[in-house]
Amino acid sequence: MANYDIYGQGLDICPANYEPLSPLRFIERTAQIHPDALAVVHEGLRRSWAETYARCRRIAGALSARGIGKGDTVAVLAANIPEMFESHFSVPMTGAVLNTINTRLDAETVAFILSHGEARVLLVDPEFAELAERAVKIARGRDILVVDILDPSFEGGARAGGLTYDDLLAEGDPDFAWSMPDDEWDAISLNYTSGTTGDPKGVVYHHRGAALNALANMTSWGMPHHARYLWTLPMFHCNGWCFPWTIAANAGVCVCLRAVRPEPVFRLIRDERVTHFCGAPIVMNMLANAPDALKDFDHPVKAMVAGAPPPASVIAAVEAMSIGITHVYGLTETYGPSVVCAWKTEWDALSGEERARMKARQGVRNPALDGLMVADPETLAPVPADGRTMGEVFMRGNNVMKGYLKNPSATEKAFRGGWFASGDLGVMHPDGYIELKDRSKDIIISGGENISSIEVEDVLYKHPDVMEAAVVARPDETWGETPCAFVALKPGRVLVEAELIAFCRLNMARYKVPKTVVFGELPKTSTGKIQKFLLRDRARALG
């Protein structure tokens, strides 16, 4: 009998039953259903969803009238301010691609990004006007329209362009008839990697991945409707882990914050009744060690933390403030968090130490990720799920990038056998949860033994005087490499190298104990991650 598919006949795609996925529908829907609901808070400014949507349409209309459309790049150099939030909708409404630039980069790197991404427009926060002006001059040959964002909450700052954001608003139509992408595979944003080993790579996101990861943020975090989200995570970083689009889908409140410091964070949590925020472990550590007088809010808050696991002592201190931590993991190439430590109710009965150990694991794939494995990087054979055998973490799914802009060789190297190779090393536990052990470049090989810097750092954080710690390899004639610890102490504390090494000997195998301890402030990225590549340079310079 012939194989005849009855479901393949006369059931075609048409406008009535199919539309490309895009997060642009989120803001349209929320503005229609909740027009008067609060959308944006910034200092004394408060705007509704109807006002925010109208502003996005006006900017989109003005950019479109100036010839910006599909295939064009619009760059933004700004802090977490309302205009940065709006750009996540206004720019793709024109069909163009949004490029949010790390505000802590030097002018030469910003110039490279503007040139490589072929930016036609640059929106500039007054705080970064001087940086923008220098970068545009370096990027000679590019005709870039520079638009100044006039943020009244920022004192000082110069003008970098001849046009303001308000000028663009005045040019635009609040009823601008924007359109959805022709294809959900169309690019929506461009994000550049840190470029610590050369020029940064341009990671391209598509509308489908942005929409799905935004929704996955809500489901994997259990966000209630109208959540109040505080911007402690830079919006330029992986498009704020897709949370601008998440907030729109959630009909939530976008609470803007220019600089992350304990006082404004706790004040906004209290005064704006913030329910959710994200950040690196260093942000949690900063809050945990803030003066008790600042911690005066009286409602539960959820915090999402990514990357290396926060030390157990930090998790315990943060949760003692009624801030529940959810650990996530991802890369720029995976739209930010694509793996989540999904909490199980049976873990509620565990001791504080056991709960912290569970929360320190990176977890399982979020609802948008199709596959997650720890495997041999050469054969792609999964390692045993024993919590001990180390391999490389691989992902695949809708929230994996399109690829690297104008870099097919790097794209080919990243995609192996139908998987994205993360470059991170970890283990798979018997329950299917992964746990990172290190970046492949951060593993310390001492006398033929692999030492996880994360494991050593976790012990260092247990010392009551340690505020921050990072461990890297130091070249050694006998052992090849030995662990070198860089440590920042809590204010007013005094500790010497011998004392900390003795503490480590009591808490870990002797071959893992740091042979060197360097005290002082640790260099960090704009997202609060410790810059280990700089520490590796320092360790090599020790001789």
The total count of helices amounts to 17
Q: Characterize the biggest β-sheet.
A: 9 strands, mixed
> What is the H level of CATH, i.e. the homologous superfamily of the largest domain?
ANL, N-terminal domain
The first-to-last residue Cα distance is: 77 Å
The CATH C-level class name of the largest domain: Alpha Beta
The structural class is: alpha/beta
Strands across the major sheet, in which order?
Answer: 2-1-11-10-12-13-14-15-16
Report the β-strand fraction as a percent range.
25-35%
* CATH architecture tag of the largest domain: 3-Layer(aba) Sandwich
**Shape estimate:** globular
Mean pLDDT: 92
CATH level-3 fold name of the largest domain: Rossmann fold
**Helicity level:** 25-40%
Cα Rg: 24 Å
Number of domains: 3
- Give the low-confidence spans: none
Extended strand count: 27
Précis, in short:
By secondary structure, the protein is of the alpha/beta class. Helix content is 30%, strand content 25%. The mean pLDDT is 92.
What is this structure's SSE topology?
Layout: H1 24-33, E1 38-42, E2 45-48, H2 49-65, E3 73-77, H3 82-93, E4 97-100, H4 107-116, E5 119-124, H5 129-138, E6 145-148, E7 163-164, H6 165-171, E8 187-192, E9 202-206, H7 207-221, E10 228-230, H8 238-241, H9 243-250, E11 253-255, H10 262-271, E12 276-279, H11 281-288, E13 301-306, H12 312-319, E14 323-331, E15 336-340, H13 352-359, E16 364-365, E17 369-375, E18 391-397, E19 403-404, H14 408-414, E20 415-416, E21 419-428, E22 434-439, E23 444-446, E24 449-451, H15 453-461, E25 466-476, E26 480-489, H16 497-507, E27 516-519, H17 532-541
Parallel strand pairs: 1-11, 3-4, 3-5, 4-8, 5-6, 6-7, 10-11, 10-12, 12-13, 13-14, 26-27
Antiparallel strand pairs: 1-2, 8-9, 9-19, 14-15, 15-16, 17-18, 18-21, 20-21, 21-22, 23-24, 25-26
